[in-house]
Design goal:
It is built from 13 helices and 16 strands. By secondary structure, it is α/β, with parallel strands linked by helices. α3 runs parallel beside α10, α6 runs parallel beside α7 and α11 runs parallel beside α13. The radius of gyration is 21 Å and the shape is globular. The model has no long low-confidence stretch (mean pLDDT 94).
Length: 427
């Protein structure tokens, strides 16, 4: 594996960016070594600046469900950008993408496009507060909702706590409006509503938590959250920035058949371009400006190039059997890994749809952040560079999940499965 060009580019980048990167996980702090600078991608493969080729299971952290440089997405981008890249004014493409989503998603009636998942969640929280006239929000340890101030809060020592900020620069006043509970613990949520009755605007949860391992929740627990929100006139927000359009066109809401009050989506609706969205019933969305008094705006919201890419990608996702095929591919990969690793492997592979997570554990279930053994991450650090040397690329952290795309061929999956399994056996 050649590294010279990436190493030189990284040294140069340190002069321009904090830590040499524009997003922290890219710095390889969790796995050590120098990050690769990616030069190009095609289908299920990427090439770095040194010419090394990898089978990619990061897929830009999920949104590239069709793979890299999908011809239909690329053509849509080219045709649109030739007409202009941004206008700060409405275009027909916004209508077309909205209609495509809303006509195939029974869980929302109106939608608002924004520029990122973080912005979508931030706006959804403001909407929940404006609609309920309450200030406090309830989130869960182990769920990530972007880097807005109200959500950079981690659990404290108690069962129900205001917690502590997980970032410098977040005022204590913000922390004091955010209640943090452990996942998969009904008693903690009940205690929170008892302690802060008529103060909680919303519960926000990743219904399929996939930013801190893959912490699959029981349907019964999500139904409980739906029930307690309804009983207390609080709103339930499903953060589907990762799961939306990834495990099915209607995401986790459709997977579990549970209707939240607000849903947030991320870059998958833009074919990998910077975009996000939030949606809800017509009644709740009527609170958003200019119809209502909850202000939210953005010059690049509904950007025509992103809308065109989203239309092209989501049209493909609506083809009959699309998601069933992805799930079969993912299971094939997992079977190949387990076959190569052997029966004595101390690794569990958790999966839903086309998402998977390698966990170094003997546990049959991991449903909360507290159940993840931090010491087990040393095994991921060992295996990560072995995988790179053999041409398999995962996100550079043992807490991150992997993704299978339509572009992954049986040959890709068989080869990657064998490589991952052999590396697991080796360590």
């Amino acid at each position: 594996m050649k590294k010279d060009k990436s190493e030189k580019l990284f040294e140069k980048a340190k002069n321009y960016f904090p830590g040499g990167v524009n997003s922290p996980v890219r710095a390889f702090r969790s796995v050590g070594g120098t990050p690769m600078f990616i030069d190009r991608g095609k289908g299920a493969h990427i090439w770095d600046a040194d010419g090394n080729e990898y089978i990619d299971f990061c897929c830009s952290w999920g949104p590239l469900i069709l793979g890299h440089a999908n011809p239909k997405v690329v053509d849509a981008i080219k045709q649109t950008v030739e007409k202009g890249s941004s206008f700060g004014a409405p275009t027909e493409l916004e209508n077309k993408l909205a209609e495509l989503i809303l006509s195939n998603n029974k869980f929302i009636e109106k939608i608002r496009f924004v520029s990122s998942g973080t912005e979508a969640v931030m706006s959804a929280i403001r909407l929940a507060r404006g609609f309920t006239k309450r200030n406090k929000i309830l989130k869960f340890e182990g769920c990530y909702h972007g880097h807005s101030d109200s959500l950079l809060v981690k659990a404290g020592s108690g069962l129900v706590t205001f917690g502590n900020t997980s970032s410098a620069g977040v005022p204590e006043a913000f922390v004091n409006e955010t209640i943090v509970c452990p996942l998969n613990n009904k008693d903690a949520v009940k205690e929170a509503f008892s302690k802060f009755k008529n103060e909680i605007a919303c519960i926000i949860i990743e219904p399929i938590p996939a930013n801190n391992g893959l912490l699959l929740q029981d349907k019964d627990y999500l139904q409980f959250l739906r029930y307690i929100c309804t009983e207390n006139k609080s709103l339930l927000i499903f953060d589907e920035v990762i799961s939306g359009f990834r495990i099915g066109f209607t995401g986790a809401a459709g997977h579990y058949n549970i209707k939240p009050d607000i849903i947030t989506y991320g870059k998958i609706i833009g074919g990998g371009l910077p975009v996000g969205a939030y949606g809800a019933s017509s009644e709740i969305m009527s609170k958003i400006s200019p119809d209502g008094d909850v202000y939210q705006a953005g010059t690049l919201s509904g950007n025509p190039v992103a809308m065109a890419a989203g239309i092209a990608q989501l049209t493909e996702c609506l083809k009959p059997g699309f998601y069933a095929s992805l799930e079969r591919k993912t299971q094939f990969l997992i079977d190949e890994i387990q076959k190569a690793a052997g029966k004595n492997s101390k690794v569990k592979i958790f999966t839903v749809g086309s998402i998977f997570w390698l966990a170094f554990t003997d546990k049959e279930k991991i449903q909360s952040a507290e159940e993840i053994d931090a010491d087990s991450m040393k095994y991921f650090r060992k295996i990560y560079h072995e995988l790179l040397e053999r041409g398999v690329y995962l996100g550079p952290s043992g807490y991150e999940v992997g993704f299978v795309s339509e572009a992954h061929t049986v040959e890709d999956l068989r080869k990657a499965g064998e490589v991952i399994g052999e590396c697991l056996k080796k360590i």
